[in-house]
Design goal:
With 502 residues, this protein is mainly alpha-helical. 66% of the residues lie in helices and 4% in strands. The protein has a five-stranded mixed β-sheet with strand order 2-1-3-5-4.
Length: 502
Amino acid sequence: MDDKSFLAPNRWALAFVLALLFGLGLGIRLTDLTDLPLDFHPTRQLFSAIKARGMYYQTAPNIPDWQRNVALRAYEADATLEPPLLDTLVAASYRVFGERLWIARIYSSLFWMIGGIFLFLLARQFLTLDEALLSLTFYLLLPYGIFASRSFQPDPLMVMLILAGWWAAVRWSRQSTWGWALAAGLAGGFAIFVKLTAVFFVAGGFAGAVLSRFSLRQALRTPQVWGMAALTVAPGATYVIYGTYIAGYLGSQFSGRFFPELLINPFFYLRWEGKVALIFGHLGLALALLGLLFFRTRESRTFAVSLWAGYVLFGVISNYHIASHDYYSLPLVPVTALSLGALGGVTLRGLAEQAERSEWKRWFVRLTLLFIAVMTFWDVRVRMLAVDYRPQAVFWAEVGETLGHQPGVIALTQDYGYRLVYWGWQKAERWPEVRNEVFGRRGDDLAERFERLTKGKRLFLVTDFDELQRQAGLEEYLRGHYPVYAEGDGFVIFDLTRRLEK
């Protein structure tokens, strides 16, 4: 590739640009570090927080017995989704630094930053230096990516390993040594082990790397390809076999992901595109797709198209989740970064030609790009600091204290009751929500359903009043049949042990 760079004309300039980008990227992710993890998909983050605390409390000293029991019951109550690698790492850190929930934010941020290193190395295999820098800038400073990449969930680690696998696979395609084959297989395999959905992204990248250099027949005759494939499949397959057929906790996790009828439903594709647009915007998605036209070699085009094909296949197979969970499209961020780098390079070369004979024009372009990066940093920082979630811990502690930390509670509350569990130390049965799901279900009679769901319960907690309004007749039924046990700013508790006389 042409290494004549407009953004970094010498090695010192390159060092400065990289230091600036990684400094901005890490700095914004550590902004408001100790705030509660409620800024991005709190349900998923609190799931991991509960798991990590349960691991820690198994051996932590000086913990009241009732708190240890609550933490362990909550830890055991929810099914295991993925291997709890990050949860275990955070729990181990708790033993050194104490229970600091923001420790997970540091780990996830570092994983994403390391992934940025691999993305830059990967981009340099196909793109010019300026294009690689544009790709890295998008990857590090995309606002959605900033919030997602510091969240307490396995996805940032998964993306890091996917990128490491892609880079090693491309290096193998150019040198074809067993060392690169082993590196690619191990990185891809552990990415899938971290989260099984990574298989589509790993497969897409590996297929692109192989087919960019070999025909399918040649690839199938190459022992290193089979070795790389075996290493990629082995960790995830081992986990699935163990979790499904030995331990038995994974069997139900594979249901409810693929609905064939969605493939002929136009609203499915609209919802899918809406989730992607939430990450990149409609214009960003369109520009990323156009970027596929600007990869200049057959090798780079094959690799880029294979990445997009892997994502599309993932969306088709996991069609329920791709249209309902935006973070399932998080691995598309580095894919889009590569495409936008190729597209942005065309614009940047045009700007460089305009400024070729004018020093002030060159600096004007560079400072304008710097301004965009810094203002993106600042805008996200303002968004982070605009909301303080710390009072939520006090609120839920008050609710838990009012409930008495005793069983027999059913709740209409946020995030599957995880806020109540984590800060309120109160486990509660969850009253089902009204959801705009893909498939509607006819509800049964309210009185009959209420009696069935509240059997054996002593208290009914409501904190999600928006959801209460969506539940036709529920508030009237509660207030008409049961006295208020306690009420405060943001919650009301009904006493199910006493029934109001008509």
